[in-house]
Amino acid sequence: MSQTDAMPSSPTVRFLDRTTPPHIVTLVLLAGLSAMNMSVFLPSLPTMTRHFETDYATMQLSVSMYLATTAVLQLAIGPISDKYGRRPVVMWSILVFLLATAGCLFAASAGMFLVCRMVQGVVIMGLVLSRAVVRDMYPQDEAASRIGYVTMGMALVPMFAPMIGGTLEQLFGWQSSFVFLLLIGALIGLVSWADLGETASHTGATFGQQAREYPELLGSPRFWGYALSSAFSAGAFFAFLGGAPYVASTIFDLAPIWTGLSLGAPAVGYMLGNYVSGRFSARYGINPMIFWGSVLTSTGMLLSLVIGAAGYHSPAIFFSFVTTVGLGNGMVIPNATAGMLSVRPQLAGTASGLGGFIMVAGGAALSVLAGHVLEGAETPMPLQLLMMIASALGTLSIIYVRRRERRLRLAS
What we know:
mainly alpha; Growth Hormone, Chain: A; 17 helices; about 80% helix
């Protein structure tokens, strides 16, 4: 019997009892803290620019440098947790995050703030390890369902975090967002201390031993198929993030409030897609969920492009079809993540970190590309085409995985 099949399908879980595996609420909180830290302070950037007597481009580095840091950290957090265990890495990461947040709060210069902001990136462990913990606890298809629920909860945070940050700034000043992060981080740290039992069963291997196993992971066509399915699916969303502000404000001339609301269109689809994953992945398996999620996104963007080619361009049409990107991501990413983590279960943390790096790095590149293809555009069609191509490549990736698995079954 394989290790995956031998895993218990329903481990005993008691909330706030660290002698048992963690409750899903704790995993949602850990993943949500990472999302909250990304966006809660964004409404305060203009005020912070004036406070630190610098320019907006410099303060904008608090976003781009943070993303770059989290991408690199994902490569390290996974292997470290595979060696030392999930629990100690979570607890030490939260402590470092709290110290870095205090540094942001009391920074005397923009440079010091940016350094502390980059150190805050350690909180990405919440996203990496919440997924690895789920894979430690459950077999592949059920893990996809649980990861879907975790990321569905996380999807809510980016919708509300900027509103929370904007309200706090208006009432108490920009520093209040970081006080809020301190309090929330400390609370989640206490919950994790009480609830997060160790789930990794393969700890103790040296980094050299892990490194010798990397070729086995990196040489797996299935790992790359799942990783690219996730990366291209998320890439369509990152391309949207990179180009949609230009589309909304310059092409459609929307007011800021409507621009903000329109940018939330993918989140609606994403929550629905995560629900579908949580409800049906264990029943139908991860590969069909990834395939149909990719097909939904590709079809939605193709229809959007066809309507645009016919000369119909409006905010309602554009942003309505963009919800299919969120819907597809909600179906693809949890299931593709479970697939990546199942290729070599003893390297679940490493696979989670590497997969996250591939997704964020590829998405960041598509986000930059979206800005270039839209330069001077009078319609959103260049962005629609880019998003359709990315989603289509994701579909081809999962088709490759399915054919690979079919060949392996026939050969066995």
